[in-house]
Amino acid sequence: MIQSKGKVLVIRGGAIGDFILTIPVLQALKKNFPATHIEVLGYPKVANLAIEAGWAHSAKSIEAPGLARFFAPKGQVPPEWLQYFAQFNIIVTYLFDPDSLFQNNVSLSGKHHYIKGPHRPDERLNLHAVDVFLKPLEKLAIYETGVLPDLSRIGALKGEKTNLKRRIALHPGSGSTKKNWPLQNWIRLTEELLNDTDVEVLIVGGEAERESAEKLDGLFPKDRTRLFMNRPLEEVARALSQSQAFVGHDSGISHIAAGLGTPTVVLWGPTNMKIWRPLGKHVTIIESEKGLEGIYPKQVIREIIRVIEMGTSAQE
User: Fold this and answer.
1) Which architecture characterizes domain 154-315 according to CATH?
2) pTM
3) Over the stretch 53-66, which tens digit does the pLDDT of each residue have?
């Protein structure tokens, strides 16, 4: 095994889920080049998860001033950015760069082993996104498939504690309303969960689902539910890691829960499951021929119980 490749930069934009499904790239680089400094150029709110999980040493914001000039033909690229890129021996990028404008401008900083990966999978191929994002590493003689995004180190870090024995985390939103279970079903599910007096429900939300999350939280006693709204993703991850189960949609938060190893139930909507599903034996996906409306709260309760029992058995 080659112990070092100097410094490696992985560039990844996109949504939360896109980044989580690219974490196996960092895992593979770390495994094959354990003495190499690995840096991420991405959105800090999600890139910091890779640092806390132990797969990257540092991160820089993809929204930093001056970087946009690299997408202009013969752009006047800032010298400080050329100095930045010059320090890396290998650059692996998943940016949308169809005309290679970014690549050509980065080349002005010196010679790199520049590896260009896809921004998104080709849905016609029905290959899981993890394997699609890993494939470009074959240019480094790294042949990995089926790697599970691993955020377990974050779960091992100290987080806040709950006084109740069991916490069930719910994320009633996603990046698209088409992928969301009807709110009345989330209400019925929460009612069913709170019939067990030994359960606390944690409701996770961001700006996209503020209205539904706040409405759901407002319907139940404050000593039984907690609203985790617009928290840093590191805090969300630690809270999910201390939950006995998580229920969500096809969303980045569901991928975080799965990566933590939390027993995860995903209510699946119209997207391609073969490409985008969260991975792991502790993950169960519920779908219906009738769409999300055909999934019933009692069915979800049964799956929550099953994944919790499965997770308990695996720990024994």
Assistant:
1) 3-Layer(aba) Sandwich (3.40)
2) 0.94
3) 999 999 999 999 99
